[in-house]
User: Which sequence fits this backbone?
């Protein structure tokens, strides 16, 4: 039971704090366009069947059998049955990327896929031993970290109301709030209590990290393609340039994807005007080509690192640079997700994330269930126990990238 409670961290990371656990939780998911306005809102599912629909009739028969024989029929919640029916209908398509999202989950879902939240920026767990909600750790550069909140802090109260581990399911609702507002958090650390007034801000849960390497090489690690990633990428590259960067390594390893337009916008920063970034084809065989629209903002040599967990939007950026001979790809073959999903809003507030297009590389090849083969295939040594935490001295892929850039 204790372990189960600890695992609840992930649900509430999404709520407040606003934190979308890491990109790999949306491995191979890519949102091309998010429709949530009246022009693109679909009809309510409840009106989706005609009165003589065979499916509707069949469901009524099943419902009648349940009413007649089900032992706990008085406990039946009709709304849950309806949602379950729709979820089953959609899942029967057999497409792991197409799913129905109930109305009460849509806000959290859209926050998750955009990777931006308003809050103070902390991960939390419920700890039975202390009986408190505990800060798992603050997100780097978040208001919580800046204020001095640390991993292991016990949350005592929020805006004067005390909370315990039993309140874990609700505490996120009281910590999150509107951007620019202030929340008071009292924590306990080493037996002493400290009070913090923290201003809620928009939190980027997957920030780009940068580093200057030797030989004037700038290094950027992109954990996902969230809302604003392209703008952040541009700013981070400019920051590296002020530090002397003349060459670039873009690390997309373990980047499970995200918003496709963020990836194509980054490609636009690196490619010559008029170059093909990707092309897409829908179920009507309608083809749409995305071209780079501007002169390149950055012209320095580029190497892109990928691995078996680089998927979707990561593969779009990698293939657009590879096929246009703009960058050398180093690492291992990518995941191979060459399809795009669209998130559609329904009139009852629910949503349908549905596979709508397949994309092709600039040279017209598909990568779905195939992946992208790097120009330089480099495996990590057998001594590496986790591809998510590779020590620098064992990172043969990064070493190969720096070696290739050394003389450019």
Assistant:
């Amino acid at each position: 039971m204790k372990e189960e409670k600890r695992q609840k961290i992930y649900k509430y990371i999404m709520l407040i704090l606003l934190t979308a656990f890491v990109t790999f939780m949306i491995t191979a998911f890519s949102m091309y366009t998010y429709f949530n306005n009246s022009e693109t809102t679909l009809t309510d599912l409840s009106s989706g069947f005609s009165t003589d629909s065979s499916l509707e009739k069949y469901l009524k028969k099943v419902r009648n059998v349940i009413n007649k024989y089900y032992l706990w029929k008085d406990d039946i919640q009709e709304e849950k049955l309806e949602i379950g029916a729709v979820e089953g209908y959609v899942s029967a398509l057999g497409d792991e990327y197409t799913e129905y999202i109930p109305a009460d989950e849509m806000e959290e879902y859209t926050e998750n896929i955009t990777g931006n939240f308003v809050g103070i920026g902390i991960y939390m767990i419920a700890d039975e031993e202390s009986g408190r909600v505990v800060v798992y750790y603050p997100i780097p550069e978040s208001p919580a970290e800046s204020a001095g909140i640390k991993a292991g802090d016990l949350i005592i109260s929020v805006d004067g109301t005390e909370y315990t581990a039993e309140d874990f399911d609700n505490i996120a609702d009281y910590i999150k709030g509107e951007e620019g507002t202030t929340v008071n958090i009292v924590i306990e650390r080493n037996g002493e209590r400290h009070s913090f007034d923290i201003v809620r801000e928009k939190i980027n849960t997957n920030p780009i990290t940068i580093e200057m390497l030797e030989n004037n090489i700038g290094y950027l690690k992109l954990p996902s393609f969230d809302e604003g990633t392209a703008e952040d990428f541009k700013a981070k590259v400019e920051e590296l340039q002020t530090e002397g960067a003349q060459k670039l390594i873009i690390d997309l390893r373990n980047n499970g994807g995200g918003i496709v337009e963020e990836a194509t916008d980054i490609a636009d920063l690196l490619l010559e005007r008029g170059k093909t970034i990707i092309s897409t084809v829908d179920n009507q065989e309608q083809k749409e080509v995305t071209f780079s629209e501007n002169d390149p903002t950055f012209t320095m040599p580029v190497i892109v690192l990928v691995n078996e967990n680089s998927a979707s939007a990561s593969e779009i950026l990698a293939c657009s640079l590879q096929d246009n001979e703009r960058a050398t790809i180093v690492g291992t073959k990518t995941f191979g997700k060459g399809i795009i999903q669209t998130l559609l809003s329904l009139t009852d507030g629910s949503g349908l994330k549905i596979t709508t297009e397949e994309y092709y590389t600039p040279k017209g090849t598909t990568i779905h269930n195939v992946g992208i083969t790097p120009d330089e295939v480099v495996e990590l040594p057998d001594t590496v126990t986790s591809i998510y935490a590779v020590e620098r001295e064992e990172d043969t892929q990064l070493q190969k990238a720096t070696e290739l850039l050394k003389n450019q």
Observations:
- The first strand starts at residue 29 and ends at 35.
